[in-house]
Specification:
Number of strands: 0
Radius of gyration: 20 Å
CATH topology: Na+/H+ antiporter like fold
Helix content: over 70%
Strand content: under 5%
Largest sheet: none
Shape: globular
CATH architecture: Up-down Bundle
Number of domains: 1
CATH class: Mainly Alpha
Distance between the termini: 38 Å
Order of helices and strands: HHHHHHHHHHHHHHH
């Protein structure tokens, strides 16, 4: 009995460290590297990926609790800090990283690091880790919702300004953004209240569709890059350096967000929300966006820093959340609205 209990406890600990979706992403990358799609199939798969992106953003619109974001505007200082960290501090950090690494890294990897810094915060993981750490979960939900509502437009705009020449953005790209991202997302938001109970009931099914869409985007982008021979230009040492840069960016962002929250006088519960929401980046938004913003082999490389950072933030933030929870008493929260998540990504 004791042996079984110990084995179960160890299995749970491993599941806490190894996210199944990260393993699926890695398996998809490996599959695309070993069995890339035929060049004749790439256009059809790209079209299917475009439909998947539209479906993914429609689901995101359905699930994202914008009402919580509106009700949480009373805590405007907290939300302003998180938005500033996500869309000002991080891009500035990205420009610094690009300037310091462009002499060594391939320009596709540099573009991927910059793109990573321009993404909104992750909704599900930021709020989950805030809750585990006994932080202000309601504020985290509101802040992550606001970040993603802004990110639908802010991220493409930042990419256009900073990476226009790399991404090849043109009138066609703007049209795709409007048709495949903005319109489905807005439609989902308009239907959010009407379909809330239905969305909550079918949350597992939505999660499967959402993740299948992301995996399809990854396979098409990465497979096209492999078929085009882009990996002959990117040695393994550059990938290792990119992973090291992602780890350094995560460590620096966690330190900066904690320092900012402390210097501005936020209570510990709000500071915890700021730390997780301000340092995390959304894979669920980033990968579908990359399929539209970056075309050709570039798209298959740009996604790598996003995947690396996502895996690292899961492991590191989970450890931090558990450590903070052990030494933190429950706090009185800022009035930031209800923690209605409805399975948000």
């Amino acid at each position: 009995m004791g042996t079984t209990s110990t084995a179960t406890h160890k299995a749970r600990r491993w599941r806490g460290w190894l996210d199944p979706f990260v393993l699926l992403l890695l398996a998809t990358l490996a599959g695309a590297a070993l069995l890339p799609p035929d060049k004749e199939l790439v256009p059809a798969l790209s079209s299917a990926g475009g439909v998947a992106v539209a479906v993914q953003f429609f689901i995101s619109g359905l699930r994202l609790p914008s009402s919580a974001a509106l009700k949480g505007l009373k805590a405007w200082r907290l939300h302003l800090v998180i938005v500033g960290l996500s869309f000002v501090m991080f891009p500035i950090l990205g420009f610094g990283v690009a300037a310091g690494s462009s002499w060594y890294l391939n320009h596709e990897l540099v573009a991927g690091l910059l793109f990573l810094t321009m993404l909104p915060t992750a909704v599900q993981t930021a709020t989950t880790f805030t809750g585990i750490a006994r932080g202000n979960t309601a504020a985290a939900v509101c802040a992550a919702s606001i970040s993603n509502l802004l990110g639908v437009l802010a991220t493409p705009l930042l990419v256009a300004l900073a990476l226009g020449s790399y991404s090849g953005m043109n009138l066609s790209s703007i049209t795709k953004i409007a048709v495949q991202i903005v319109a489905p997302f807005v439609l989902g938001q308009l239907l959010h209240k009407l379909t809330l109970k239905w969305t909550q009931r079918w949350a597992p099914a939505f999660k499967v569709v959402d993740r299948a869409a992301i995996l399809l985007v990854v396979y098409v982008a990465f497979g096209a890059a492999v078929a085009d021979g882009v990996w002959h230009r990117i040695p393994a040492a550059q990938l290792a350096v990119t992973a090291g840069i992602c780890a350094a960016m995560l460590a620096l962002s966690l330190w900066i967000t904690s320092l900012v929250a402390k210097k501005l006088g936020f209570v510990p519960a709000d500071a915890t929300a700021i730390m997780f929401c301000g340092s995390e980046k959304s894979l669920a938004t980033g990968l579908p966006l990359s399929a539209i913003l970056f075309t050709g082999p570039l798209g298959g490389v740009v996604i790598l820093p996003v995947i690396m950072y996502h895996a690292m933030q899961l492991i590191v933030c989970a450890a931090i959340a558990r450590r903070v929870a052990r030494r933190t008493e429950p706090q009185h929260y800022t009035d930031a609205g209800p923690a209605v998540l409805a399975g948000a990504p």
